[in-house]
């Protein structure tokens, strides 16, 4: 039996939506940051603003959950002139909710925070809260990362950080993520620390 094209695309969209709800942090693709403290340090605030620019409200119509969320810039890449330091981990821990989770008083408060976050992510018709947690992690040139790169789909807004990457690996990441952004339901940011001057900055909108 052949389904109409619009039905097929809607079913695929629903499957993608449910898939993001069920997905977990992929530690084989990105390495989580180290907790450095409760407040962003140094240039973290500047790069946090860069991450949030163009993320859109992230909601979809109530009766069309298969639709792509409203996001102005699905993929953006930039090279930081600042050297790597504790501010990078502070930035990621601020974005991914680690700071909020550590500030929660007690184990049950932390669990309740996780429940509220997941419930908010499942309410597809609501705009994404400004403080909604991201996924954040370091991207390393490993066989596992190269294998997963071509199938990467963010489960929530995501910040990937590459430290002094090999030019060929960085080029592959930018090219692959640029192409795949068409299926991203959430914005992805690639922040390069060091690296070749040819990749001083790039902005790819979708």
What secondary-structure arrangement, pairings included, does this model have?
Elements: H1 5-22, H2 44-52, E1 75-80, H3 86-95, H4 98-103, H5 107-122, E2 135-138, H6 143-149, E3 158-163, H7 167-180, E4 188-193, E5 201-204
Parallel strand pairs: 1-4, 2-3, 3-4
Antiparallel strand pairs: 1-5
Description:
The protein is an alpha/beta fold and 206 residues long. The chain has one domain (26-204). Helix content is 39%, strand content 13%. The protein is built from 7 helices and 5 strands. The chain has helices at 5-22, 44-52, 86-95, 98-103, 107-122, 143-149, 167-180, and strands at 75-80, 135-138, 158-163, 188-193, 201-204. The protein has a 5-stranded mixed β-sheet, sandwiched between helices. Strand 3, helix 7 and strand 4 (188-193) form a beta-alpha-beta unit. It is globular, with a radius of gyration of 17 Å.
């Amino acid at each position: 039996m052949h389904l109409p094209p619009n039905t097929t695309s809607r079913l695929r969209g629903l499957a993608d939506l449910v898939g993001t709800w069920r997905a977990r942090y992929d530690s084989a693709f990105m390495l989580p940051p180290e907790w450095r403290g409760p407040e962003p340090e140094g240039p973290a605030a500047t790069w946090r603003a860069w991450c949030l620019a163009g993320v859109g409200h992230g909601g979809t119509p109530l009766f069309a959950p298969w639709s792509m969320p409203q996001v102005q810039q699905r993929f953006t890449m930039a090279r930081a002139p600042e050297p790597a330091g504790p501010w990078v981990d502070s930035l990621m821990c601020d974005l991914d909710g680690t700071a909020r989770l550590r500030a929660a008083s007690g184990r049950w408060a932390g669990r309740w925070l996780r429940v509220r976050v997941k419930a908010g992510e499942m309410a597809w018709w609501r705009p994404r809260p400004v403080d909604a947690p991201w996924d954040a992690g370091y991207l390393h040139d490993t066989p596992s990362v190269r294998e997963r790169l071509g199938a990467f789909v963010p489960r929530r807004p995501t910040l990937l950080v590459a430290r002094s990457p090999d030019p060929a690996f960085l080029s592959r990441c930018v090219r692959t993520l640029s192409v795949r952004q068409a299926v991203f339901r959430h914005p992805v940011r690639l922040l390069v620390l060091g690296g070749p001057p040819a990749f001083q900055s790039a902005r790819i909108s979708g």
